[in-house]
Design a protein that fits this description.
There is one protein chain. Helix 14 packs antiparallel against helix 17 and helix 17 crosses helix 20. This protein has 23 helices and 24 strands. The strands form six sheets. Strands 13, 14, 15, 16, 17, 18 and 24 form a seven-stranded antiparallel β-sheet that branches. A hairpin with a 3-residue loop joins strand 14 (411-419) and strand 15 (423-430). It is α+β, with helices and mostly antiparallel strands. It starts with a helix and ends in a 7-residue tail after the last helix.
């Protein structure tokens, strides 16, 4: 089968246009927004869920830490109370009380003779009494102290007579007050067998003490039970702990660890304790922050003595209990979470800690999952955005190609006349009628639904008006490529703003002639329920029609508002000030959403003032200053501004229009037409006067389209002044 190139081209063209039409629908319907909004919504929900889960996880970790701490502290308290009770029971045995009294007496009689104690039968008898207790209860030693801390009895001879044991003063004070107590772990000054059976000094020791009383109840000595803390004390603190890295330990006010760490092997590797088989952390580790993670191989910059206590220990030694699940460094520098409390009766703190990596492992998995999902969603959003940008670019290129082809439906574009923020204007003509036309189309780069809606609103409102002094709209439409346009009559002439700037104030007769036409156009608009809202000299064009010169055309209904059209009015943004400050009514400044036809009459009076005097009603250094004057100051009369008389009727009309109170202005634009017709100089400006003025001052045959705040004449940036600029011969 033979297929011609033209058929292939046509098929491809139809396929492309169909695909592009669907893409355009996707873009113009903002369908591309929904996937992105869905992505954003999922991210927001994800953040909320992640936050809730993390907070819940942190609360769970906090609760677990506190529970473990409370369990360990409770077990420790029970054990300490049991040791105190055991010491009290032994101290209250009559035989021990009798022997203790004898030893105290021997010591008092021979204070400097330790041999007297060692040779006494009382010591031998007391050791026999202690022998069974050591065998059954598992204590290191059982001894007897006088109230000054001197050893009076022991199962070994070495300690007897010594008074320099490092017993906490607070423990002896409690004994003197008749209370049993247990000391914190401390280094023994006497050698004893370690776990391997080797005699060593400076091993950790604890003492359970209870007062011994005589027959009269007077405290005479203290019974001491020596406890091995690395076995009993540490075991009690290990009753409950969390996971593989959780530990509970005790420490004193200087930050010295009083119990055994579960990380002794790690501590040897990082150099916090000597790397020997008999090295232990108890009494050899200080709870200080190395400020780096030593387990990871980092080395602290400060010497041990210069390092601060860990965040936990610093709070605890100040008698503050607490919990921290946000994380801090422990004595190894490892980030941990922890709970702690201070036991003032024993002058030590107890802490439960756990590595953050283990405590928050579920949270980390959640975070990884969340960020993975976030990455996928972000990639999807980027892909959608890129796809949208590409389609939008293709759409703009297609629209630009249509304009370059200079064909919009039945209209052909001849040349560009002007361009503004929202639209571009071309000189063109109808393909069949050949009628010269000004064609206004929406700026391709700024095509939005809101802009198109405003364009359509402007066209629809203006096309309802058919007064000869209102700009005529011929047609409007939208090309298949989405280029919105409308066609209006092509004008020759100059706007009133440029007219006054170039030729000065107008004579009264000519001003009245022009003002009657403006009022007539406004009268029809107001009767149809339409407010212009931006009446100003730049929106009033002076042209000629059918041999009639000084013919007015009211332009730019882009800010027009239907009195009963709430939906259309919203397109100008509720409460947004619309218009030009030089010609705004007081209510247009104070309550822009409530303006009515009388606001146009105020602007009409301001235009009349400008035509007669060549100056605006109010002037100022800023928009705010001008607006304040419109709302508060009374305007000068035209005669005072000019310094010469102005006919009373015309001046009265202008000043009435400029009243602050809308109720005091003329009732309608139609009434203005009637009042202007009654002025003394009405119809004094004749058709011949207008013709002569145009003949002397204007280049007939040239053209200029509407001069609106949106459209800047193209000649302001091009040299072809004879075609597009205002038509004064001065140019």
């Amino acid at each position: 089968m033979n297929v011609s190139k033209s058929s292939l081209g046509k098929s491809f063209s139809q396929s492309f246009l169909k695909s592009f039409s669907r893409s355009k629908l996707f873009l113009k319907g903002n369908l591309w927004v929904w996937p992105i909004l869905g992505t954003i919504l999922l991210l927001i929900v994800g953040f909320i869920v992640r936050s809730v889960v993390e907070q819940s996880s942190k609360q769970t970790v906090s609760d677990n830490l506190v529970t473990i701490l409370n369990a360990d502290v409770a077990a420790l308290s029970i054990w300490l109370e049991r040791e105190e009770s055991t010491a009290e029971v032994l101290a209250n045995e009559s035989r021990i009380q009798e022997l203790a009294k004898e030893l105290v007496t021997i010591d008092q009689e021979n204070p400097d003779n330790n041999q007297a104690l060692l040779r006494s039968k009382s010591l031998t008898d007391l050791r026999n009494e202690f022998e069974s207790e050591l065998e059954h209860l598992g204590y290191l030693d059982v001894g007897l102290f006088n109230l000054n801390g001197k050893v009076l009895a022991s199962t070994r001879d070495e300690p007897i007579g010594r008074a320099d044991l490092p017993i906490q003063k607070s423990a002896l004070d409690k004994v003197r007050q008749g209370e049993a107590t247990v000391t914190r772990p401390f280094e023994s000054v006497f050698a004893r067998k370690d776990d391997s059976g080797v005699l060593k000094a400076s091993l950790p020791t604890m003492i359970a003490m209870a007062p011994i009383k005589d027959e009269s109840g007077e405290i005479i000595a203290a019974l001491a039970l020596l406890i091995q803390p690395e076995v009993n004390f540490t075991r009690i603190l290990s009753v409950a702990r969390a996971g593989e890295t959780g530990e509970t330990y005790a420490f004193d006010k200087k930050g010295v660890m009083l119990s055994q760490s579960r990380f002794d092997e790690d501590l040897k590797q990082i150099g916090l304790i000597p790397d020997r088989d008999d090295s232990h952390s108890i009494l050899n580790i200080q709870i200080r922050d190395p400020e780096v993670n030593m387990v990871s191989g980092n080395r602290p910059a400060l010497r041990l003595a210069d390092r601060p206590l860990t965040q936990m220990a610093s709070a605890a030694v100040q008698n503050q209990s607490g919990v921290d699940v946000d994380g801090y460094r422990d004595y190894r520098g490892v980030p941990v979470v922890g709970a702690w409390t201070w036991l003032p009766e024993f002058e030590m703190g107890v802490a439960t800690e756990m590595d953050m990596t283990e405590a928050y492992r579920p949270i980390y998995l959640l975070r990884y999952s969340f960020w993975g999902l976030f990455g996928l969603l972000a990639m999807g959003s980027v892909a959608i955005f890129i796809f949208t940008v590409i389609l939008a670019k293709k759409e703009q290129e297609t629209r630009s190609a249509v304009i370059k082809a200079k064909q919009l439906g039945q209209y052909s574009l001849d040349e560009k006349l002007g361009e503004g923020g929202m639209g571009v204007v071309y000189r063109g003509h109808h393909a069949m009628l050949r009628r010269p036309t000004a064609i206004k189309l929406l700026n391709i780069e700024k095509t939005t639904d809101e802009a198109v809606a405003r364009f359509e609103r402007e066209v629809q409102m203006t096309s309802q008006l058919n007064h000869p002094n209102t700009i005529a709209i011929y047609d409007y439409g939208r090309t298949p490529e989405g280029v919105f346009y409308y066609a209006m009559e092509l004008l020759e002439g100059i706007d009133l703003d440029d007219l006054v700037k170039k030729f000065g104030a107008l004579p009264e007769s000519r001003a009245i002639h022009l003002l009657k036409q403006i009022a007539g156009s406004l009268s029809e608009a107001h009767d149809r329920g339409v407010i212009h809202r931006d009446v100003k000299p730049a929106n009033i064009f002076l042209t000629h029609r059918g041999g009639v010169y000084d013919f007015i055309k009211l332009l730019d209904f882009g800010l027009v508002k239907a009195v009963d059209g709430r939906e259309q009015a919203s397109l100008t943004s509720a409460n947004a000030m619309a218009g030009t400050p030089m010609y705004l009514s007081p209510e247009g400044i104070n309550t822009p959403d409530k303006v009515d036809a009388r606001s146009d009459l105020y602007a009409f009076g301001a235009v009349a003032f400008y035509l007669l005097t060549g100056t605006t009603v109010f002037d100022g250094d800023s928009v705010i200053e001008i607006c304040m004057k419109h709302t508060r100051e009374q305007p000068e009369t035209p005669s005072k501004r000019l310094g010469k008389p102005v006919s009373e009727g015309l001046e009265q009309i202008i000043m009435q229009c400029l009243e602050k109170d809308p109720a005091r202005r003329p009732e309608s634009a139609g009434e203005l037409v009637q009042q202007l017709s009654e002025c003394q100089l009405d119809e004094k400006w004749t058709i011949q006067d207008a013709r002569e003025w145009w003949k002397q001052n204007m280049v007939l045959g040239a053209t200029l389209i509407q001069s609106s705040p949106e459209i800047e004449p193209a000649t302001r940036s091009t040299p072809d002044a004879t075609l597009i600029v205002n038509l004064s011969k001065e140019e």
